[in-house]
Design brief:
This protein is mostly beta strands. The strands form 22 sheets. Strands 1, 5, 6, 9 and 10 form a five-stranded antiparallel sheet that branches. The longest helix is centred in the C-terminal third of the chain and has 32 residues.
Length: about 725
Amino acid sequence: MGSRCALALAVLSALLCQVWSSGVFELKLQEFVNKKGLLGNRNCCRGGAGPPPCACRTFFRVCLKHYQASVSPEPPCTYGSAVTPVLGVDSFSLPDGGGADSAFSNPIRFPFGFTWPGTFSLIIEALHTDSPDDLATENPERLISRLATQRHLTVGEEWSQDLHSSGRTDLKYSYRFVCDEHYYGEGCSVFCRPRDDAFGHFTCGERGEKVCNPGWKGPYCTEPICLPGCDEQHGFCDKPGECKVGWQGRYCDECIRYPGCLHGTCQQPWQCNCQEGWGGLFCNQDLNYCTHHKPCKNGATCTNTGQGSYTCSCRPGYTGATCELGIDECDPSPCKNGGSCTDLENSYSCTCPPGFYGKICELSAMTCADGPCFNGGRCSDSPDGGYSCRCPVGYSGFNCEKKIDYCSSSPCSNGAKCVDLGDAYLCRCQAGFSGRHCDDNVDDCASSPCANGGTCRDGVNDFSCTCPPGYTGRNCSAPVSRCEHAPCHNGATCHERGHRYVCECARGYGGPNCQFLLPELPPGPAVVDLTEKLEGQGGPFPWVAVCAGVILVLMLLLGCAAVVVCVRLRLQKHRPPADPCRGETETMNNLANCQREKDISVSIIGATQIKNTNKKADFHGDHSADKNGFKARYPAVDYNLVQDLKGDDTAVRDAHSKRDTKCQPQGSSGEEKGTPTTLRGGEASERKRPDSGCSTSKDTKYQSVYVISEEKDECVIATEV
């Protein structure tokens, strides 16, 4: 047994050791050459105390990382990194071991705790420092040279030599990867430690394989090699060179049982003959469990079923796996009429109260003559003796002595109160329930309490409404306040108006929600309401389309104005020059006759008939009335009324041409022949004054003129010079 435990421990130790790997990468710096003492930026190192003028006090930074196709000098250094102290000035060689500086060991070692992958990337930077205590590597101005390379490397004791040259500097170095003690293989992943104990007897080969010591064999070298010629079936040995044939004792007359045999004997070596009641290969299975353990109780019969199992056959009145539980025959209460029960072995007995008898006290010694029935029960004698009572509704018992409580079984559900009515019961339901036993929940949603399309959920004497967007409240009857979510910004005040909201902006802000900063405005709050649009209208106001339409209209108006100006300019070019005499005689108070509008009645009145005051005179008259009102007020000037100028363009041009003719100095005309014209009020044609419009008075050089405006209802008195 001990040899087996030793073998198991050896296997476990070997498996655990194979999980771990161990090795070390070694880098040996051999020689560095920097003849001119220059940095990587071609500047001179100024750290020297004397000649030469450029002296680079050199230290190295080493970074070992996983294989990279394009080596990056930046961290992280996945396999390890190291920074050396100052190793020399400009050009120097490094001996094995590190020299005088105890802080530096050459080669530089990078231990591995996992399988060597066979490839690596190496970065070696040579840097300059002014002080041996300042070995910072972050400053790029300190860099002298940099080596960045990737290599394949197998495990072995031999060194790989390499030389890196950058033009101004040379670095000679070597490297290798070796396994730690007791580790072997290409990746240093095979563990083998020589031993000579109960867990094995072996040494290790070149590849980590186990080489058994002489006299031992097996995968872990734990099996001894017996004496040559020892019987392979019956012979055995504990040490190399022995031979045991299965007998023991002083006289070798006792056979050796099969290893592991418990309840067995042997007649020949390596036998295991089981004793009575035992079975199995090692005689370790109890075949007579009932005899050895006697598990059944209370006189039960035990039966072996093999493999250490059994069954118990219980006597009447007992039960259980081992018949440990007795059956109580009084559990069903067999005795009637108040009789007491006594449990016996597989039986029972009833002790009857006075007046009853029988096995279960079911017979009464009384008769109907004794009046045994209560509460109105009807008694009837039995032929076999005794009597029986037929109880009325609401009572029970042999003598109808028990009142039936219909509420004792709690027939009402959901907290309802049970009311005993004698021959029946009534359930008074809690609010929200109905039915005979109050087990029906009243549908509180039957009346559709949720308004505005809300979804109703029934509860216990209650309901809840899931409101659609825009409504809230218990019944979804309250519209959601438009100002609830504070749509107005910048300190504006929100007002609800119907199904919309209005933002009263603070001074200096505008927009639908007062979100825009406006130029300075006059004092006073500005109410911006851009929510007044139709409920069905969707989308924002089309400002772009409106602006485009306004611009097009403006351009069209500008074009029309340009066309009108051009036409008027052309007409002025083709119009003949005006007569100077006409300009002098037809101008009254800077108003020419040709500039007078249509629908204006003009009357020229002589100076002898009315006084000239050169002031406005109120002329009260009705526009719609006839011109006869004026004639009635001024009968002496009736002949001075001029014919209405309202006519077509031809009549106006004829009147102008006649007037021009009268103004000619060489013409001689007696009386002007005027064509009578019908006035607006339907009056007859008026006679014209025989004097010319351009003639002057003999008595004075001033001539009074009345200009009567039909539209403004006034008379203007002017003076013609």
